[in-house]
Amino acid sequence: MDIRPNHTIYINNMNDKVNKDELKRSLYALFSQFGQIVDIVAMKTSKMRGQAFVVFKELAASTNALRQLQGFPFYNKPMRIQYAKTDSEVIAKMRGTYGDKDKKKDKKKKVPEVLTSLAKKPGPVALTPQTNSPAAPVPDNPPNYILFLSNLPEETNEMMLSMLFNQFPGFKEVRLVPGKHDIAFVEFEGEALAGVAKDALQGFRITATCAMKITYAKK
After folding, report:
1. Tell me, what DSSP letter sits at residue 205?
2. Closest CA to 157 of 142, 177, 141
3. Rounded to an integer, what distance in angstroms lies between the CA atom of residue 24 and that of residue 117?
């Protein structure tokens, strides 16, 4: 690969029928497990359909995401991921290297303002085993192959949860509860497999404000 590693990854071959806002939320849910995201850019113009840029704060996070999610079935199409050709404006500004080059570019061609304001929001909590310290233990039921999720944000959908949980062996399906956006069930092939996913994703933040609570479902 002749493009040097950087904080921004370029994704294409995505389903272009997906609503732009839903696409951004789903990308955020999927990629934020690798590290803090400072921006996501997705446009619905004819030239940019099915494409997006995800900007990570750390280079290691973008590298890990590229390796782990290459070919991942995202809305039923395998994602193609590579490093962006240049670092994002957000990262350039953070480094203090954003300057004349970009001003010249603006004179040649006016680029529509498409950067989202994700960078202004509190960043997601990077998912690592250390962050799962049980400061406030979630009351639990006896082990079960079905997990019960609660404290989900309003924009949660089946695709988001499937993308989070199907990276774990034994994943079978996600079941949403009609009329209740904040809870869901996730089924695995066995109790032990469900337990692995439960421990790994306990407290995961689909959005910056909602930490997901996971327990075994009541038998």
Report:
1. B
2. 177
3. 12
The CA distance from 140 to 216, in Å, is 6
Residue (of 214, 207, 217) closest to 29 by Cα position: 207
How many CA within 13 A on the CB side of residue 50?
A: 14
Element (H, E) at 191: helix 191-201
Contact 69, 30 (CB under 8 A): yes
Beta strand extents in 52-191 (DSSP E only): 52-56, 73-74, 77-78, 80-83, 146-150, 171-177, 180-188
CB 27 within 8 A of CB 118: no
* pTM confidence score: 0.54
Q: Nearest-CA neighbor of 154 among 218, 206, 195, 201?
A: 206
160-209 residue pLDDT tens: 888 888 888 899 999 998 888 899 999 999 999 999 999 988 888 777 77
Displacement of CA 164 from its chain's centroid (Å): 8
What digits encode the pLDDT tens for the residues 63-109? 999 988 898 888 888 899 999 887 666 666 666 655 544 444 444 44
